[in-house]
Amino acid sequence: MRLFSFSPSSSSSSFPITSSYSNFISLLFVLVFLITNLHSVKSDYHDYKDALSKCILFFEGQRSGFLPNDRRLNWRMNSGLGDGWQHNVDLTGGYYDAGDNIKFGFPMAFSTTLLSWSVIEFGEFMPPNEFRNALVAIRWGTDYLLKTISHPNKIFVQVGDPIADHNCWERPEDMDTARTVYSVEAPQTASDVAGETAAALAAASIAFRSSDPGYSEALKRSSIKAFEFADNYKGAYSDNDGVRSGACPFYCDFNGYQDELLWGAAWLRRASQNESYLDYIQYNGKTLGAEDSTNEFGWDNKHAGINVLISKEFLEGKVYSLESYKSSADSFMCTLINESSSSHIEYTPGGLIYKPGGSNMQHVTSIAFLLLVYANYLSRTSQTVNCGSVSVGPASLHRQAKQQIDYILGDNPMNMSYMVGYGNKYPQRIHHRGSSLPSVKDHPQAITCKEGSVYYNSANPNSNTLIGAVVGGPGEDDMYEDDRVDFRKSEPTTYINAPLVGALAYFVSNPN
């Protein structure tokens, strides 16, 4: 944007310092300031409250099951009402993970954990109505997760045949593909999904402690049961023959199950303050890979999150035996600081955290969330991070997180928001079946498996706006083509939005 222009006189090679020349120098300094600070000036005007509201609303568009009358996205209707009938169990409810119609338990549990952590850390910054909406979103996940562990020594890990589902383009309301139920029964192993389910229920029990003590206690009891299954039968759920064909390659446990055991124990320790979980973390940490160096946090790899979460006990609880977790958390933070000597996380030219493989925004939002959480822990204890010759304080971590969040909301080379419905320019052709197909209200007749292909291949914008959906995002060159077919860039997921809820809540009260 051109702010002003000027044409210096060429009539003389030199001229005295006059008031007009002084004005020119002043204007020049203003121009330099605006250019060098354009990003921060622009960011000050983001409506974080509006973005937070939309970010939470997105989860209503992902709901499966019987929808309440007070739903706000009226283009969504009931779906998956027969889920679980083959096993004589009610598995209705829960969330579709992304733009398809499968209920994958592993990422669903992780999304629920991160939603709960968002409320635990930053709920105080949320407007009261959005705090309530966030709790509703959490409960939609936890009510379903409770159903998945309702049978002793058994956990239901997935509903829906992904191969059949991915061969169709149809609304969840019209699903006619197999709703295959995938489960794991002892002594088969599911430490990853059971451990993540334990983490989700334990974290949610903290989130509901004040508003619904009875529900909170029930969540904690069920979390203990889920963790016992995870710990007693150690191994990955996707190693089981009956599960592998459904879970892989979509949500295989690529990283191993050990981190979920530490993660579940850490959340149970925080929820219950029981010394046995502290002992578990201390005595099993090394065996379960607590010292593994990693700069990733997501549905499959929990190590960076574990280190930040447990660091709270060291920093605020003075549990000095956990110092190694704080050291690991520091090392992770140093990978985000350009001035440090650590090996760095990669950034796009426009400043976005970037990891190859698709759905990049999942890394951006989860890492930004960890930056804010850790910054708060450091701030409350007057601590800093030592990155070699550079000392990094909470304010620096806050700025790092803000840069990522503001990039998502529009401060980027494309000058577009990657959150649907936020700002004047945002993705119109997201990879999402329910959003791209006409709603049941507008098209009451069923749209069968292959009949939806015409909408999938269309260049037209989606029929329904999935407000708050954050897409996978641009490539390593900061370019985004808004192409429904390119699911790696255009598909939203619950685990992109879940940590973003917490980050946006923080910036509602701390916009600068």
From TrEMBL:
A Pfam family assignment: Glyco_hydro_9
All residue ranges annotated as the Glycoside hydrolase family domain in the record: 48-504
Enzymatic reactions: Endohydrolysis of (1->4)-beta-D-glucosidic linkages in cellulose, lichenin and cereal beta-D-glucans
Keywords for this protein: Carbohydrate metabolism, Cellulose degradation, Glycosidase, Hydrolase, Polysaccharide degradation
Active site (record annotation): H431, D482, E491
GO function term, MF aspect, one: cellulase activity
Keyword Ribosomal protein in annotation: no
Gene Ontology biological process: cellulose catabolic process
Record EC number: 3.2.1.4
Enzyme category, top tier: hydrolase
Domain of life: Eukaryota
Family statement drawn from the similarity comment of this UniProt entry: Belongs to the glycosyl hydrolase 9 (cellulase E) family.
Full protein name: Endoglucanase
Organism: Papaver somniferum (Opium poppy)
Lineage summary: Eukaryota, Viridiplantae, Streptophyta, Embryophyta, Tracheophyta
